[in-house]
Amino acid sequence: MSLLYGLITGILFGILLQKAEVLRYDRQLGALRLMDMTIFKFMLTAIVIGSVGIYLMKDLGLVKLSIKATSIGAQVVGGLMFGIGWALLGYCPGTAGGALGEGRLDAIWGILGMLFGAAVHAFAYSFLKTHLIGVGSFGKITLPQFLGTNNWIVIIAFGATAVFFFWIFEKKGL
To answer: 136 has which bridge partners?
Structure first.
């Protein structure tokens, strides 16, 4: 049943990506050049809605969170690799799948690159675990735990910050 839920939510996510026009190359390029904030608005909206949904379900006892350890070293290297891949291809992982679904065959190269990268990561994991993952490790901690505050305070503050940025983006026509 959970596979069916995954399939349904994946299809819905793909529809939302397509309707929000974040699969378009010009939107991707505009985001990379900080000239079109459509993708950033889409991502910020997803983060805020996802945070509210996840923590609401957690507070109601419907889900139990399994927090991954925070590693600044791994996140910096992973973020750089993600950014370089996005800049070279013009798609991020989610939009590459959506673009392929729309029939854009150039996305195949990105998907093949992701599979190759996953294989390299699996091959190099023991080295990475020894030399990178421990760099800047904070353990299994969330931002609210790090700040010593309630989850909802961080979610509301992040949501208000997102709304502020939406206002700026709209005012500047981005």
So the answer is: none
C-alpha span between 64 and 3 (Å, rounded): 18
Residue pLDDT, tens place only, 20-41: 888 888 888 898 899 999 999 9
* Contact between residue 151 and residue 142 where contact means Cβ atoms under 8 Å apart: yes
The set of residues, in sequence order, having a beta carbon less than 8 Å from that of 26 and lying 6+ positions away, is 36
Distances (CA, A) of 24 to 20, 38, 92: 9, 11, 12
Q: Which 8-state DSSP code applies to residue 112?
A: H
DSSP state at residue 70: E
Specify burial of residue 23 (Cβ count, 10 A radius: 0-12, 13-18, 19+): buried
Q: Looking up tokens 């049943």, which residue turns up?
A: 1
**What pLDDT does residue 28 have?**
86
Helix ranges restricted to H, the chain: 2-19, 25-32, 38-59, 72-89, 93-101, 107-131, 143-147, 151-171
